[in-house]
Amino acid sequence: MFRSLRRTLGALCAAAAVLVLPLAGGAPSAAAAEAAAGAGYWHTNGRQILDANNQSVRIAGINWFGFETANHVPHGLWSRDYKSMIDQIRSLGYNTLRIPYSDDILKPGTMPDSLNFDGKNTDLRGLTSLQVLDKMVAHAGRSGLKIILDRHRPDSAGQSALWYTSTVPESTWIANLKALATRYKGDSTVIGIDLHNEPHDPACWGCGDTSKDWRLAAERAGNAVLAANPDLLVLVEGVQSYNGVSGWWGGNLMGVADHPVRLDVPNRLVYSAHDYATSVAQQSWFSDPNFPTNMPGVWDRYWGYIFKQNIAPVWVGEFGTTLQATVDQRWLAALVTYLRSTSTYGNDSFHWTFWSWNPNSGDTGGILKDDWQTVDTVKDGYLTSIKAPGFPPGGGSGDPGGPGDPGGGTPACAAVYTVSSDWGGGFNAEVKVTNSGTTALKSWKVTWTWSGSQKVTNMWNASYTQSGATVTATNAAHNGALAAGASATLGFGGTPGGGGVPSVSCTAT
Fold first, then answer.
1. Which end of the chain is flanked by fewer CB atoms within 10 Å, N or C?
2. How many angstroms separate the Cα of 302 from the Cα of each of 109, 252, 330, 376, 492?
3. Nearest CA to 428 among 198, 155, 165, 87?
4. What is the pTM of this model?
5. What is the DSSP letter of 395?
6. pLDDT digits (tens, 9 = 90+) for 326-351
7. For residues 440 and 87, what is the distance between their CA atoms, to the nearest angstrom?
8. What's the CA gap between 75 and 333, in Å, rounded?
9. End-to-end CA, the chain
10. What are the C-alpha distances in Å from 156 to residues 100, 168, 441?
C-alpha cells in the first residue's frame, strides 16, 4: 500500500538531478543445471517455467524504473551509459530485468528526458522513448538478460487502482499491450508482459463486475497479447482485497483458488505477487508476537499456495526495503528463505525481481547507492542464495557476422568489431563473438591490432591484455560457453578516438 508515494518520491529525485510439494523426480541441484538453459521463448508446466528446450529456468532479477515517470526513460542515465548499467546488472548475477513503463511512451514522438550524452548514451541521441527501449532490449539480449515489460501506470502522473482511467480507457491499454507484443515478436529477449501493476481497491477478483473485476480484465488483455504473440508469458498480479481480507497492492492472489485466470493459449500464465517491509507500510503481521516465524503462513495464504499446490508458477515481481529497521532485516531474511535457495531446489522455486536497481526509490532504496555506481553489498548479499544461472546471449536476432562452419565439428567462432560512440578524446566499442560452427564452445579469445595509438581504458564481459597496439580479450566466466549459433558481446572504452575499425581474429575451444 501507499505505493504511489514511493513512485512520486522516485520521480522527484529524478527531477532534482509449510508443505513443500516436489515435482516428480525431485528438484535439480544448481550444479546440475544446464549452462545453456533459458533459450528461446518460455512456457509453463505446473509450477515451473521451461525454456524452448523444456529445461527449467528461474527468473532471478531486478526492477529498473523510470520509463513510467515524466522522464520517459530509465533513471540514472543522467549519470551513466545504459550499456554499462545493463552489464553491471548481469555481472552481479541477476538474469532478468523488469522494466516498468507507462502508456505515455507509446504516444508518437514521446522523447526521453534527463539523458547524458557526454561520452555516454551517444547512440540514444535523438531517439524516442520507445526507440530507447529497443536499444535496451537489444543490449540486454546480447548480455544474456531476459526482459519482462511491466505496464506500471496508464500515464506518468501516477499509479491507478484499476487498469483504466478517464483519460486512458481499457481499449488504449489493450491496444498498447498488443503493440508491444507485436514490436518484439521474434525477439525472445522479451519473454513476457506484466499486464498492470498493483491493482487495488476497488479492483476485485472474481466479483463479476466487468468495470472492477481484475481477473476478467486480465483475461481480456492476456488473450489480446497472446493473439499478437502466442509465445509470450502473461504475468498477472493480484489485487488488494479478497473476501474481506486485505494486503499489499497487487499482493492478494487468494481468489485464484476459486477464480483462476483462463487464457486461450495454454501454459503461458504466471501469477505475480508483491510483498514489502515496514519501510513501505505497516501490516498486522509485523506486530505478531511470533514474527517472523508467522510469515510463511501469511505468504502461503496470499500467494504461496499457488506454487505449493502446483497450480502455476509464482513470481514475486516486487519486494524491497531500506533495511534500516531490524524488523525489515528479519522480514527479508525470512522471505529469501521462503523463496527457496537455488543450491537446494534449483529452478523448482519461486521466481522474483527485486525492487529496485534504482537508489532513488523513496521507501526502499536500491541495489545501487546514490552515486548510481556503487553496489549496496549488504542488500545485494541477502539475495545471493536465490540468484540463479544466467541465460545464453543473443535473444531472437542473432547475426552470425562471419564465415560458417569449416566442417568436421571443429570449434569455430567469428567476431565483429563495432564502434558505438566516438567523441574525439575517447570512444566506446564492442566485439560480438558468434559460435560459427556446429560444436558448442567452452571458451573463446579475440585479438585485434590498432593502426594508431589507441589503448583500452576499461572492458566488460571479458578480461584483456594489451601489448603495444595489440589487444587480446578472453571471455568472462559467464559467457564463454556458446551453443552453435549463439553469440556473446564484450564492450570496452578506449582513448583516443578517431581510430579505424581493425580486423578481429577469433579462437575457440
1. C
2. 41, 5, 19, 30, 46
3. 87
4. 0.75
5. T
6. 999 999 999 999 999 999 999 999 99
7. 24
8. 28
9. 53
10. 11, 11, 45
